[in-house]
Design brief:
Two copies of one chain form a homodimer.
Chain A (H helix, E strand, L loop, with lengths): L4 H15 L6 H8 L13 H15 L9 H17 L4 H10 L5 H14 L6 H28 L12 H14 L17
Chain A binds a DNA duplex (19 and 19 nucleotides) through loops.
Amino acid sequence: MRYHREDVVERALGVLDTYGLADLTMRRLGTELGIQPSALYHHFATKQLLLAAVADEILARGPHGPRPARWDDRVAATCEELRDAMLAYRDGAEVVATSYSFGLGAAAPYDDLVGALAEGGLPADLVPTAARTLLHFVFGHVSDEQTHLQAGSAGAIDDDPLPASDFAAGLGLVLDGIRVRVADRSGIEKRGARPVT
Amino acid sequence: MRYHREDVVERALGVLDTYGLADLTMRRLGTELGIQPSALYHHFATKQLLLAAVADEILARGPHGPRPARWDDRVAATCEELRDAMLAYRDGAEVVATSYSFGLGAAAPYDDLVGALAEGGLPADLVPTAARTLLHFVFGHVSDEQTHLQAGSAGAIDDDPLPASDFAAGLGLVLDGIRVRVADRSGIEKRGARPVT
DNA sequence: ACCTGAACACCGTTCAAGT
DNA sequence: ACCTGAACACCGTTCAAGT
């Protein structure tokens, strides 16, 4: 059999979801496809680039609802869709976060956030900082969730419904910190806030 | 030569800082100490536990200034000291963040944050969420910083003074989100804030 | 208590060669 | 364009045995 780039990514996604990131090796993937591991290097120059393609595919397959009108609803929607996309695959958060940290992925969510924050009226010099802070929160939170999820799934019985996922609560925290800095007519006033340092 | 646990950690810290996390292997560390890699398993049951001990040591060697009186200054101080501790060793953020994600490290900063936030009057159900959100921010931010730092250090000339480290700005964002939820007499009032979702 | 020596079961990547 | 076969230079971990 002869494969294309997308076949390899598809199968990699299957191995990831079934066996986890630790077992997603070039050799294992080669075996799964019935080809030599060296053949994979025809499609991807390095494993890191293969994983970046897998991360992109995870994001592409995630939900993409309509963009809400309010800037802060749009920020929340982007973060929630990013979370849902990563939760759909085992170790999805780690794959996407790693790809992002190498500057190879998650450009779309970042750009979405930057756009929404700028439109919201956040001071321009804070926009990239706020966007990255949101991404750090989402990656960190969902990685934790996924780690504890699989740790829990070993112990059979407790299908614990998650500590009522405090994702929304944490996101609300960061979002309110951003709202404090936005001069809008809809609500929060900045009064006694004093900068750290 | 015969070594103790702490000698191994000390040398591991040296290898980490000089060659980076990717080169901190059990075999490499054994060679560096002049012993067989298998001898390391007398001191640590797994590599993961060795790295947890390294993470603990990185945190223990970090700065520990006096605890400020105000709860929010204490939160900021904990985050800044955590950052400084991790920046002091190459790949320090990744080592500490990984150890934390396995539930093996960073308990002290977490407890500090929980203490300060509770004293500040943050609603009890938000305290763990806020503490974890702060840690996610710090780990994510400093990991980014360190990655781009070593990426930059390859290109010799530009000792770029960092994009004026927006750590304080990001921390201020999250902290203000927390302040919004604290009923204190010193400043911010919650008015139009509406929860996400 | 701390270490050796040898083995087991793996890795990512390169490269000449095949179709 | 896509793949084979073989090699290179590694991994973490186990275990019987030594001092």
